[in-house]
Amino acid sequence: MPPIRDSGSPTAAEISAKVRPRVLVEQNSSDEQWIAIPEPVVERLRQFGRPTPLHRARRLEQHLGTGARIYLKREDVLPTGSFKLNTAIAQAYYAAEEGRTTLVTETGAGQWGMSVALAAKMFGLKAEIFMVRCSLEQKPYRRHYMELLGATVRPSPSAHTAIGRKILGEVPDHPGSLGTAISDAIEHALHDSSAAYLAGSGMPHVYLHQTLLGLEVAQQLKDIHGEDLGVEGRGDHLIACSGGGSNLCGLIGPHLRARAEGADLRFLAAESTAAPRLTQGVYEYGRTDLGAFTPEVLGYTMGESFVPPPNHVGGLRNHHSSALVSLLRHEGVLDAVAFDQRTALEAGRQLLQTEGLLLAPESGHAVAAALEVVAKADAENLEPVIVILASGSGFLDLQGYDEVLLDI
């Protein structure tokens, strides 16, 4: 589908400068190794439960009969049920400090939208959220949560925007994707001078905020074992699902230097076969949205005409991977695997039956990847430390578990 905007429209850089809080734009290109977290953000992060637990999955280990040590970083325990709250609080704070009154964003499975809705309320702001249509239909309780907090929730593609109307005119039953929702949200924000557009993933400032994940894991493992990850000969692993890449980059980002300096450490992205960019995509320039509001970036892509099937992994359904995730993959720093939703949900069921933890379908992909890593390590007589990012809770995804695993 050709972009709706013409050559005389503002550039992606001009759009970003208009719709994003200034501090976030600056953080995208900062060369500082450390950026201080504002105290009001620290206060709310602590109130909401940071640092989150690092759970040793001993019953899963026993079930598998493995010598590997398996840990889950429990982001599912946060109030909105996912890691997304980490950057939502920071971005909402910067927007409020700049005098913006409305937060506008997209959401796939709804976890990011829930986090923005809560963060907006914490800082006295309004929230307007475009949610991928098939996810909105599959996960209505996430919409109820957002609306309880006063947020306005619209399906994407949306008849509320020009790009949404164009998409619906060409594909009336379009299930929506992160690409359509990003387009809807940015176009809407452009027409409201009081609004700030917040990105849930794909941007350097989001990855920066999410490095809380990897930093906490490093400290927690050191407290437990008295040693860092990457011990020679052990082949330790950090594993996360990959959609926009924010939970993945947040987990592995603080460990990239150690890997570059020779630590025996592997990074693994688990994606969905519904949008297998890292495993089947082409490495070329493209955009994450369909309205040409975002810049063209070099990344693994399925192409802008690709419409992912309407399955139950809304957070992983995008056609184009982020520049940073793609670069790490292209340079061989990051490995990637893809699973269909049944395999991911089966892995989630296995975790529930052993550890009593119910994770979101997106996180189930990371569990499935970890099970393969464990089997390979056992075959090679290795006993690595394996950290799985439990990025979200699955209690609002029970319909998906039911439909896929019970064939209803």
Automatic annotation (TrEMBL):
Substrates-to-products reaction catalysed: (1S,2R)-1-C-(indol-3-yl)glycerol 3-phosphate + L-serine = D-glyceraldehyde 3-phosphate + L-tryptophan + H2O
Pathway annotation: Amino-acid biosynthesis; L-tryptophan biosynthesis; L-tryptophan from chorismate: step 5/5
Coiled coil: none
InterPro entries: Trp_synth_beta/beta-like, TrpB-like_PALP, TrpB-like_PALP_sf
Signal peptide bounds: none
Keywords in alphabetical order: Amino-acid biosynthesis, Aromatic amino acid biosynthesis, Lyase, Pyridoxal phosphate, Tryptophan biosynthesis
Enzyme class: lyase
Pfam families attached to this UniProt entry: PALP (PF00291)
UniProt-listed Enzyme Commission number(s): 4.2.1.20
Domain Tryptophan synthase beta chain-like PALP: 46-389
Keyword Lyase: yes
Protein origin, superkingdom: Bacteria
Cofactor: pyridoxal 5'-phosphate
UniProt subunit comment: Tetramer of two alpha and two beta chains.
Family, as annotated: Belongs to the TrpB family.
UniProt cross-references to NCBIfam families, sorted A to Z: PRK12391.1
Protein name in UniProt: tryptophan synthase
Organism: Streptomyces spinosisporus
